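Q: My labmate handed me this sequence with no annotations at all. I'd like to see what the chain might look like in three dimensions before we decide whether it's worth expressing. Could you predict it?
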Amino acid sequence: LLAQSVANEYYSKINLSEEEILIEYNDVIKSAPTKEYKAKHILLEAQGEAISIIEKLEQGEKFEELAKSHSIGPSASDGGSLGSWFSPNQMVKPFSDAVVLLNDGSYSKVPVQTEFGWHVILREESRNTNPPTIDSVRNEIQQKIMQDQQLLTLEFLILKDFILTNIMNIFLRS
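A: Here is what I predict for the chain of 174 residues:
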């Protein structure tokens, strides 16, 4: 409770400039994904099973039906659909890397391994994303800047204490 009170007092004295907020916002924009994807997948335990599914797809079998009958993932009953749009940073890296490389309407010709198993992925659609408006992320940006400043202050105080302690020790030994 005391620590929270001190933190509240500290934060109440911070005045952020619009320039600081804009600089942080530009960093948010730079790191924001520029595309979102819709995809389906068939999750399998073994690479050989995934290769077999790819062969069936090449012979014209339907992705959704293969997902329903072979996938071990929770989306099997939905034909492998992952549901809503997602950005690459919302999926494990090997999966998102594969989705990004695919064209809309195409499936992976090589199984994709993740910690969950082997995937055959169908990229249904992609779309460009719009960056968030500054007003929609202003509170998060202000909070981040204040936390960063608090961390710097704490690091400074720790360093200051370390230096003063060592100086005192040098004088006490003299």
